[in-house]
Design brief:
Blueprint: E1 3-7, H1 11-23, E2 27-31, H2 34-43, E3 48-52, H3 60-70, E4 76-80, H4 85-93, E5 98-101, H5 106-124, E6 132-135, E7 138-141, E8 146-149, E9 152-154, H6 158-168, H7 177-184, H8 192-207, E10 217-220, E11 224-227
Parallel strand pairs: 1-2, 1-3, 3-4, 4-5
Antiparallel strand pairs: 6-7, 7-8, 8-9, 10-11
Helix pairs in contact: 2-3, 6-8, 7-8
Length: 229
């Protein structure tokens, strides 16, 4: 049974999410602020976090920053209000994997949780034969789930890993933001442009010597993105 941590200072939201997630077969833990969330992660095995942005004591963005210093592997879905767009973008840049806007739909929340957990657990599984993808100085070992650039191992989030793997499997091909979102997130590409752009910008900072003049992840103006060596 997978464990989902719900972190929100609103008791009604925590209660509603607890009901939805328990009904879907998940074990649910609760926290009322970022500090409690981090303490829970330290003592419990948590497979996914639903993290509110605006909270007392330690807000979601600050908690996410501290979490990513400890673990790049736990998937995080931000719980945001429509007025929190700038914080939402900051959260994605800091390593959040997805977001849900309040008021949320129960089916949407469960679908996003299931999709992220499928990819998270797939990353933790070992295959019988190693599968290595390489392009230029980038090498991805899908057996050990490691990525190196010019021989140096880099740390990337699960979503960044999925995006990079998708590109490495399709070198030279141009994909629109909507198609990238549909293929990587496995979801309807609503508002895909901003989400994809944030993740690719963050990924560039890790794989490029000069993100402003990328060697690998390139924009094809008016069409989308591609990777080339």
């Amino acid at each position: 049974m997978y464990t989902v941590l719900v972190c929100d200072d609103d008791r009604d939201i925590r209660r509603a999410l607890h009901i939805y997630l328990t009904g879907a077969g998940y074990r649910v833990l609760e926290a009322v602020n970022g500090r409690e969330a981090l303490e829970t992660v330290d003592r419990e095995e948590v497979h996914l976090i639903l993290l509110d942005i605006m909270m007392p004591e330690l807000d979601g963005v600050s908690a996410l920053t501290l979490l990513r210093e400890r673990s790049d592997n736990i998937p995080v879905i931000l719980l945001t209000a429509k007025s929190e767009d700038s914080d939402k973008i900051m959260g994605l840049e800091l390593g959040a994997d997805d977001y849900v806007t309040k008021p949320f739909n129960a089916q949407e929340v469960i679908a996003r949780v299931k999709a992220l957990l499928r990819r998270y657990m797939r990353m933790g599984q070992r295959e019988e034969k190693p599968s290595v993808l390489a392009l230029g100085g980038i090498e991805m070992d899908d057996d050990t789930k490691t990525v190196t650039v010019d021989g140096d191992e880099i740390t990337i989030t699960p979503k960044e890993y999925d995006i990079l793997k998708f590109f490495l499997e399709n070198p030279g091909k141009v994909f629109s933001s909507r198609e990238i979102y549909r293929r990587v997130w496995q979801d309807t590409p609503m508002g895909a442009e901003g989400t994809v752009a944030v993740h690719i910008r963050h990924l560039r900072e890790k794989v490029e010597i000069d993100p402003a003049e990328p060697r690998y992840l390139k924009v094809v103006w008016g069409k989308g993105y591609k990777i080339e060596g």
